[in-house]
Amino acid sequence: MPGPAGDGGAASAGRDDAHKGADVPRDADAVLDAEFFLRWMDALARAVDREAARLTELDAAIGDADHGANMRRGFAAVTAALGKDAPDTPGAVLMLTGRRLISTVGGASGPLYGTLLRRAGKALGDEAAVSRAQLAEALRAGTAAVARLGGAKAGDKTMLDALEPAAAALEESFAAARQAAEDGAAATVPMLARKGRASYLGERSIGHRDPGAASSALLIGTLEETAR
Amino acid sequence: MRMLINVPETVVADGLRGLAAAHPGLNVDVERRVVVRGDAPVAGKVGLVSGGGSGHEPLHGGFVGVGMLSAACPGEVFTSPVPDQMARAAAAVDSGAGVLFVVKNYTGDVLNFDMAQELAEDEGVRVARVLVDDDVAVRDSLYTAGRRGTGATLFVEKAAGAAAEEGAPLERVEAVARRVGERSRSFGVALGAVTTPAKGTPTFDLPSGELELGIGIHGEPGRERRPMMTSREIADFTVEAVLNDLRPSGPVLALVNGMGATPLLELYGFSAEVHRVLAERGVPVARTLVGNYVTSLDMAGCSVTLCEADEEILRLWDAPVETPALRWGR
User: Region Disordered: which residues (chain A) (predicted)?
Assistant: First the structure.
């Protein structure tokens, strides 16, 4: 996969500690500033664009075949908004992204992803830079807001099955978060859908990966890429 | 798949431009995706706002006008509209008497209308909301998204629209909408899959010689697949499914609805079978509407919606209506 756009040498980028024992700065000390979050959102927008057809295919199997197109439309609007007037704090980047998604995506994904990022952004406050631990805490707050809004919990075959383990693993490292999100998305395959349009299928929802969990894995995957 | 379109990206906007050109009595904002009655806000009248994904035409834009919706908000194809649209519509139709949102029960629609309600209330508009969830093919359960909103939406919008036109206050219009929804049930059958403009290929593969029972209106697969049945057999199965849930004690309103690609000749033949089954089951039919009203793009198939009527519901059903898709009594 192509790396994130922009200046790879930014002093602000975090480093993952997948190589235990190596003499590298601890992630918890990494300072993630607005520029890091802008690069993350840019990488996410490009990943969504690249993977749109796959997300739509997943949605066609158990939903209504529009997840990829909707997310692509939303992130195109996010890219335009962030490009026009880039916020100068991490929290503001996530909150603006969330608001644009709510105003452009529609479906369930718009309010759910919008709430995830708005709530996470709110949790980061107006600090100029945040640590990985703070981001993990913010993602947990955002994920909890998604669970409340959608009335879902882990195991219901939704985006929460990727997000909850990822937010927890982010305490450890960016790489662990990415792995947890991908494992979480894969784990939705044998699940019976209990929320959203897939739940109408009952038993026929079993055997398919949840499209929302798949796009959530992109969110966390691009976070890890941006931190490399 | 051949489609009468320019490019998939402009399908919704192109349709709205056509709606505006054909019906000058409507105020159509193509850019912001809101269809409003030309004379809104009507002094003293409760506003009735609905919306949902596009692809179900004439639902909802075709039901905007005197005696039915004050405004409709079309989303992308099969995708609920965004909160900004409904908040804008609410502001455009509110005369001070408040606004009722009619929401089909899908996760996306519910979430976006909830957010719109917050936005509208922040602007000082009094908003009530009614959920339509009539599809008996979906098992209602605390652990799922619940039954889908389908054909009963037409009954709810017609009755609530008539009540609002009579000058009923918000609480009354809401009560009418809720009562009609609670007394309505639907079941749908697909004879062919649906192709969205964006995807260009059918969302599910339905071999000829088979049909899909218990489908929704978004090309989502149904609950069960069977070898092809006759119109008579489909009517037996469909009406049975509805009556097992509804158990009406009096006359019903019947909507014999086409999914978009089934000819009216076939629909009328099917309607005759529906009447036959209802007669056999001792259920009198007070009114019947046959046609493509709550559609699913190019899906072949049909659905049956029954509403247990009473004098008030019949009066509201018969009340004058003047919209692109339904008009009588004026």
Answer: 1-23
My answer on whether B125 and B195 are in the same domain is no
Q: Give the model confidence (pLDDT) of A56-67 as tens digits.
A: 899 888 887 789
* Chain B CB within 8 Å of residue A74 CB: no
Concatenated DSSP letters of B195-242: B-TTT-SBSS---TTEEEES--SSS---SEEEE---HHHHHHHHHHHH
Please tell me the total count of domains within chain A.
1
Query: What integer is the mean pLDDT of B129-158?
Result: 87
* Burial readout A135-171 (b: 16 or more C-beta within 10 A, e: otherwise): bbbbbbbbbbbbbebbebebebbbbbbbbbbbbbbbe
| Same domain for B164 and B76 | yes
Same domain, B160 and B203: no
- Which DSSP state fits B133? -
Contacts of B139 in chain A (CB under 8 A): 202
B60 catalytically annotated: no
Candidates B78, B82, B145; nearest CB to A102: B82
pLDDT score at A16: 44
| CA gap B177, B183 in Å, rounded | 10
Residue A16 lies in a domain: no
In this complex, is the C-beta atom of A104 within 8 Å of any C-beta atom belonging to chain B?
A: yes
Q: How close A124 comes to chain B (CA, Å)?
A: 23
Query: A143 pLDDT band (50/70/90 cuts)?
Result: very high
d(CA A41, CA A222): 8
Is B324's pLDDT higher than 80?
A: yes
CATH number for the domain that contains residue A163: 1.25.40.340
Say whether residue A194 is in contact with chain B using an 8 A CB cutoff: yes
Q: Determine contact: A205 vs chain B, CB below 8 A.
A: no
Give the model confidence (pLDDT) of A36-56 as tens digits.
999 999 999 999 999 999 998
Chain B, nearest residue to A105 by Cα? B82
Q: Which residues of B touch A201 (CB under 8 A)?
A: 220-221, 223
Same domain as B62, residue B16: yes
Number of domains in chain B: 2
- From chain B, the residues in CB contact with A70 under 8 A are 76, 79
- Return the closest-CA partner of residue A110 out of A118, A98, A121, A93: A98
Q: What is the pLDDT of residues A64-89, one digit of tens each?
A: 778 998 999 999 999 999 999 999 99
Q: Are residues B29 and B171 in the same domain?
A: yes
The residue segments making up the domain with residue B61 are 10-179
* Residue B175 shares a structural domain with residue B197: no
Percent of chain A topping pLDDT 70: 87
Spell out which residues of chain B touch residue A63, defining contact as CB-CB under 8 Å.
220
| Segment B88-100, tens digit of pLDDT | 999 999 999 999 9
pLDDT score of A19: 44
Q: Is there a catalytic annotation at residue B218?
A: yes
- Quick one: B167 and B308 in the same domain? no
**Residue B1 maps to a domain:** no
What's the gap in Å between the CA of A204 and the closest CA on chain B? Answer: 8
